């Protein structure tokens, strides 16, 4: 059964005349008659009472017609909804992001974009690195906001923010009065690390590998706010970005003397996945805004 057969059927039912219906549909009358006959064969019942060129729905035709009208209306509504969701002016953008970025970066990003495109809507999904990666791979999210080190070969990537990393200690730590610190001075200090599902983990691991210096974690926390809490309690030191969600009383943020200690946060999406015009426009906007 084809969609055109159903459209032909409703046109014949409305006009009750095969020749008039064929002209309205811009097809030949024999082609229309064949399409209706094929539909009746598929259903196993006649749909019309025929009187020459004039036709009238029988009880089977009336029954079927109600369902066909509903089905075609639903299809049209589906087409319209897809248009609204994908339209760059009115569409919906699906983004997954790391929990810590929901305090400052993501809200400000959404606000600024909606100033320019007020009818665009966002569907947001947050979690740890494993969660947001799954949202992207399953197609729930169009893109994700994460760190560069988590990108794979089938990913596209643009940087949207560089966040400087700091050595963070408690207010009563001996290093608290220092204006800057070398990472090598942390040797022997209890270090509060991160478990692998935290998005910053890969960045910090990569930076330490480049310095040929290793720190043994005394604690491995699930998320950055927990790291900050452990530092505040005097249980160790760590390396963190200075974001709003981590600015706890009792913490001291000390600049790192070595260069290159930044957390690059950006948009990541899959090369092999369809992106709606709304999603593409958002990526272009963020790429331009970050330059």
UniProtKB/TrEMBL annotation:
Span of domain HTH lysR-type: 1-58
Instruction: Give the matching SUPFAM superfamilies.
Output: Periplasmic binding protein-like II, Winged helix' DNA-binding domain
User: Does the keyword field hold S-adenosyl-L-methionine?
Assistant: no
Q: Which residues form the signal peptide?
A: none
Task: List UniProt keywords, sorted A-Z.
Answer: DNA-binding, Transcription, Transcription regulation
Q: Which family does it belong to?
A: Belongs to the LysR transcriptional regulatory family.
- This protein is called HTH-type transcriptional regulator YybE
From which organism does this entry originate? Paenibacillus cineris
